[in-house]
Description:
The protein has helices at 3-6, 17-24, 45-55, 67-77, 90-101, 116-124, 141-147, 170-179, 204-210, 238-247, 255-265, 268-292, 314-324, 348-363, and strands at 32-33, 84-87, 107-111, 128-132, 152-158, 185-189, 214-219, 232-235, 296-297, 303-307, 327-328, 330-331, 340-344. It is 42% helix and 15% strand. The chain folds into 2 domains: 3-42 and 269-363, Aspartate Aminotransferase, domain 1, CATH 3.90.1150; 55-267, 3-Layer(aba) Sandwich (Aspartate Aminotransferase, domain 2), CATH 3.40.640.10. The protein is globular, with a radius of gyration of 20 Å. By secondary structure, the chain is of the alpha/beta class. The protein has a 7-stranded mixed beta sheet, sandwiched between helices. Strands 9-10-13-12 form a 4-stranded antiparallel beta sheet, with helices on one face. Strands 1-11 form a two-stranded parallel ribbon. The mean pLDDT is 97. α3 packs antiparallel against α11, α4 packs parallel to α11 (255-265) and α5 runs parallel beside α6 (116-124). It binds 4'-deoxy-4'-aminopyridoxal-5'-phosphate. 4'-deoxy-4'-aminopyridoxal-5'-phosphate (PMP) is lined by residues 37, 89-91, 115, 158, 162, 189, 191, 219, 221, 227, 232. Belongs to the class-II pyridoxal-phosphate-dependent aminotransferase family. Histidinol-phosphate aminotransferase subfamily. Its EC number is 2.6.1.9. One of its GO terms (molecular function) is histidinol-phosphate transaminase activity.
Amino acid sequence: GPDYIRAIAPYQGGKPISEVAREFGLNEADIIKLASNENPLGMPESAKQAMLAVMAELGRYPDSNGFELKAAISAKYDVPQDWITLGNGSNDILELAARAFVHQGQSILYAQYSFAVYALATQAVGARAIVVQAKDYGHDLQAMAEAIAPDTRLVFIANPNNPTGTFLPAAEIETFLQKVPQHVAVVLDEAYNEYLAPNQQYDSIAWVRRYPNLLVSRTLSKAYGLAGLRIGFGIAQPHITDLLNRIRQPFNVNSMAQAAAIAALNDTDFLQKSAQLNAAGYRQLTEGFDALGLRYVPSHGNFVLVKVGDDDAAGARINLALLKQGIIVRPVANYGLPQWLRISIGLPEENAAFLAALKNVLND
Ligand code: PMP
């Protein structure tokens, strides 16, 4: 295979509960997982019911074009159906964008400390990565605009960003979009959008109408609680949707996922509950970090990046000590942040158990 494929370090997700139970001799029921930015409420009951109704139909292929789901997205975001691309998780959308817009040898631009899949998608198409130094752990959009090279064809922006939780105000993004040449596509990855406070919400769909090179990416994996089903979507003008549609797998979103997503998108109660629980959990975790004298990056997502030591083994050391106590969090050394850990916000009792374990571990 090509050298650029051999050079890829595979994506490492949060450790599964079953694996940690086996490795550390623990009961699965005693393990708390705060490692993958999942919804601690699990999936919405409405989605469960919708899936059960589809079970009898699993002998048939899914709707390849996802008509009903696109209709639900179209109604919710007020865009025509041919502006919507469905993905097997939003990771699928990110990867489709790299394949659709970029040749081997051209470049893709993204920020230091931004989501790991941007690097993977870049390497997978044999493109060159231009990684722009972060500012206060977030995107430096001015520097990013200046770093666009003649061969750049795609820019990834995450708002809020993972793993740092940083947020870009709408005005900064719009200024950036105005500077990007039209032959360079911009993916605005809004996986954590639903956690933004009402006064931080902004209208990215209005930008899609104005900027023909913009693709907004969303997921059902976070606030909607459907991570295991793998469903996300992109919104862009039809000339982009048409390109993505040519290269996606014909049945990239399965029947259960389509049915569950329709239910979840319309379940405003669940969404509201998720956002409220997250806001309370954020206060709980950050108050705990303050009490322990730990530095953290203020977060707008469903997770917090916290600094657990001053040496480059600190993240791995504290992570292992937490695992032994049955608490799974996310080391971020692969992001170049070896002194930090990323903690997904859990239920109140999970956050409390994590903070108690962290306190123990730090005092050891
Ligand atoms: N974008 C960002 C910024 C993320 O953090 C994640 C999840 N880790 C994704 C996209 C992809 O999530 P999914 O494929 O489950 O939609």
